[in-house]
Amino acid sequence: MSLADKMRAKKQALAEGKAGGADLKGSIAARKEKADSKKSSLRNRMKAKADLKEADEDDDGDEDLDDEELEASIEEAKERFDELVKRVQLTDIVEETTALGNKMVDLPEDIAAIRGRGYKFRNYLESKIEVMAEKWDGVNDRIETWLETESEDLDDELAEAESAYRRLQNRKSQRYLDKLTAALDTLETQVEASEEKVKALYDEVNREMSTTTNQLAQINKQLDWLDGADVSLNAGEGLYMAAEAEWDDNRDKPDGFIFVTDQRMIFEQSEKKGGMLGFGGKQVKEVLWEVSMDQIEDVVPSNEGLGGGKDMMTLKLGSGAPYAEIIAEVKGGIEADYWAQQVKRVAKGLITEESTVEPDPELIERLRNAPTDCPNCGGVLPKLVAGANEVTCQYCGSMVRI
User: pLDDT tens digit string along 193-221?
Assistant: First the structure.
């Protein structure tokens, strides 16, 4: 099966709400139903054992107490008991993992949406769904194991607490308050140990889900910026990332956006000029510079300003570029080191490995046989940018198509 066929098959499976061979929607419903059933069974067992314990215990003649401080302690113990029963049933975790599974079902559609908008990079997003679905199944398996086995091991502790709890409801006795408190202490220690095991796996999936949804939101925002810009992409050119930025031109320092594609870096001024106190003025939108990826020799990050709060980027450019270097502040909380690292990856052509578009064999062959010298003047042609099928001679201006 070709790469293209594999991608189509994966997209079809994701569109149907499937990942890792499992039907997510059906799995979520089945897991939730089983968890609810186990919770009910646990509660019934606990009550039955408490009935037996209560029948075996006799009234020791303790006097009822009405001290306000004791009343408060009893109320606190009752609340603690109710909360621990929920924790033994893993009520909150079952609800959270169900919600997480439902979010996972929506991810394929969200990823398909950015692909539909032309975003072709970060092909690992599709694979993430499969991995998270498998881990999500693991979480639910752990929950099922807990409800079937470990919770049964706590039957005696639960019954002890239930019995003391009932007695406290009928009679406010220090004896039964002490019994309930002791039972809850023992129960809580065991519940915490099991919860930590389950949550360790759940937290990993939850963090990955948050990371993925944030990535998709960021991509959509950057595509919105591109849609609103006066920037036209070349055939086969795709946006990789973008950021709000300020160009340090040693004069006006215009604000706008930097767009990084697999072929170029482009800065478009986009700001309101003139006016006073936020009123009036004119919206200025204009591409002020662009550089080809083959013209970028280095990207130097730095942190400037008070407390290093400004994330700066210096582009060191080669021959044919409009400037020897370009300095810009990258805004929006993007760290300078991260930005510089990503631009270097793009300039080296490394992001082609993240593309969802299968390379054209014919184009690869043409690029392999592409001329290195200008057929017009004999000058050395610049390095081809990933995805480009033409190059301009920096000496005579002739365009050479590949």
Answer: 878 877 777 788 889 999 999 999 999 99
Planar angle of CA 260, 254, 249, nearest 5 degrees: 85
Which H/E stretch holds residue 32? helix 24-56
* Cα 240 to chain centroid, rounded: 17
Write the CA distances from 336 to 215, 245, 299, integer angstroms.
Answer: 18, 12, 10
156's tokens: 């005696």
Q: What is the DSSP string of 64-120?
A: P---HHHHHHHHHHHHHHHHHHHHHTTHHHHHHHHHHHHHHHHHHHHHHHHHHTT--
Q: Please answer whether residues 327 and 317 qualify as being in contact, where contact means their C-beta atoms are separated by less than 8 angstroms.
A: no
Burial class (CB in 10 A: 0-12, 13-18, 19+), 117: middle
> What is the Cα–Cα distance from 241 to 264, expressed in whole angstroms?
11
DSSP per-residue letters across 315-336 = EEE-TTSSSSEEEEEE-SS--H
DSSP-derived pairing of the beta strands 255-261 and 239-247 = antiparallel
Instruction: Name residue, tokens 């189509």.
Output: 8
Higher pLDDT, 359 or 328: 328
Smallest Cα–Cα separation from 130: which of 19, 287, 249? 19
Helices and strands: H and E segment counts in the chain: 10, 11
pLDDT at 343: 96
